[in-house]
Amino acid sequence: MHYALRILAGATTLCAAAAAAGIQPTIHPTSVCQSIARKISSHSEVFYSGSPNYVAAMSHFDSASSQQAACAVEAGTPVDVGFTLRTVGSSCVPFAVKGGGHATNPGFSSTTGVHISLARFNTTTYDASYPNTANGAVTIGAGLTWGQVYTVLDPLGVIVVGGRDHSVGVAGFVLGGGYGYHSNQYGLAADTVLSFELVLPNGTVRNITEKSDADLFWALKGGGNNFGIVTSFVVRAFPQGQVWGGSVVQAPGQQEAVGAALDQFDSVTDPRAAAVGNFIVKNASTLLTSVTLFYDGPTPPPGIFDAFLALPTLQSTVKTRSFLDLVLGNAGLPTGYRGASGMVAYTANTPTFINATINEVTSLGVSLAINTSAAAVYYALEPFQKGYMKNSTGAYPPPAARAGSPMPMAVAFEWSDAKDDAYLRKELADSVARLQAVAVSDQVVAGQSSVALPRYSNYALAPTPLEEFYGAEGLARLVKIAQRVDPLRVMALAGGWKFQTHR
């Protein structure tokens, strides 16, 4: 075994040298798949085109980000993940790592090479007596979705900071930062991580904590898939009782009133309250507005959501219920369409910013549906309270942003025809740029021009400069850490926001 590892290490070195010289790999991905299949344990399997497991592995909620790989490796142990990493690294074959499959940028969790599925890392366990915690900790497999995690935690009366949509995967969400309903109380999901089970690019399995490797622990909290493959997370648990919330769809023509309610909500200081404002146009129809409301308790105090609830309503699902019922009651992200997402970082739901958003969604929702196969445009404003980043200590958000508490607005387009891919991605990028300029102008007017407005990598459209996520100083630190843990640049063979390139 040690002899085999030395051969692989030597081959990987040759791969890196060949890549640096501009020589393309000559090993076909299918041959690499076959090599992996022969050596991995019985806990893992390799699947090929035509099998149900292969189809599931290739599937993404956004069909434009799917590719057909030579095979899908369903690794069932960290050791098998390590062997797979060493094998693809030694062959210079591109690979992808997929948790939940919600990356919308093509190639970020898909490949034509070797696809590594984390589907078998699918357990959630709660330890009420985890050391140095008030309410214990939860170990979560990287192949799970948040709905699966919440289903296990619901009868235990605890919760973790996780996704607001039940179909979103755990791994990419946490490694990018992770905004949730509980973020006003507890911060981003990455802020609550106690340890990462990480398979390094050389195949070594390590438990990364602040004590074991402070730099790498910092980098994994927002730095994505640049340092190896995370197979599980240990995160802080928090008590969870009944909650109040749901979705409210307003009658037509209420967009300015919804904007005013969002502006008013910026003044709410109760950290148990959260809201998302949605502005949507589907198939060139009338602008639709809806708000998702959340309160971490059975009944919100008077005044918090009154401005939203006073508006004429077409439909409401707001009620007191379990947190699990709230999340599962959401329709979930749409599937089957081609699509892309982008984001705007902003600091306040000002009338100027809201009006600019309404103008964007109205004009683009109609013009794109007439001239392309666009089916819908979505603009979702996500208010968070001042100070919600105060406990952030990871790579994202950068220190210059934390005091100003910037918020993300998600922008998403859906369409059906592949010929529109490039054009609609460009339209989305232009729309995001226009709104980002408004957000910056609002900062100047408010005297907050020194506050950084970092982009959020889980929403951002490629290519976005990495400095816009982490700042120049943070990016330089991330690059050094990546060079230390991945000197042969194995992870550069995978898609995503890369700190190193496979030259």
From TrEMBL:
Database matches in Pfam families: FAD_binding_4
Gene3D superfamilies for the chain: 3.30.465.10
Extent of the signal sequence: 1-20
One example GO MF annotation: oxidoreductase activity
Keywords: FAD, Flavoprotein, Oxidoreductase, Signal
All copies of domain FAD-binding PCMH-type, residue ranges: 65-240
Listed PANTHER family: BINDING OXIDOREDUCTASE, PUTATIVE (AFU_ORTHOLOGUE AFUA_1G17690)-RELATED, FAD-BINDING PCMH-TYPE DOMAIN-CONTAINING PROTEIN
Family of this protein: Belongs to the oxygen-dependent FAD-linked oxidoreductase family.
Protein name: FAD-binding domain-containing protein
Source organism of this protein record: Mycena alexandri
Taxonomic path: Eukaryota, Fungi, Dikarya, Basidiomycota, Agaricomycotina
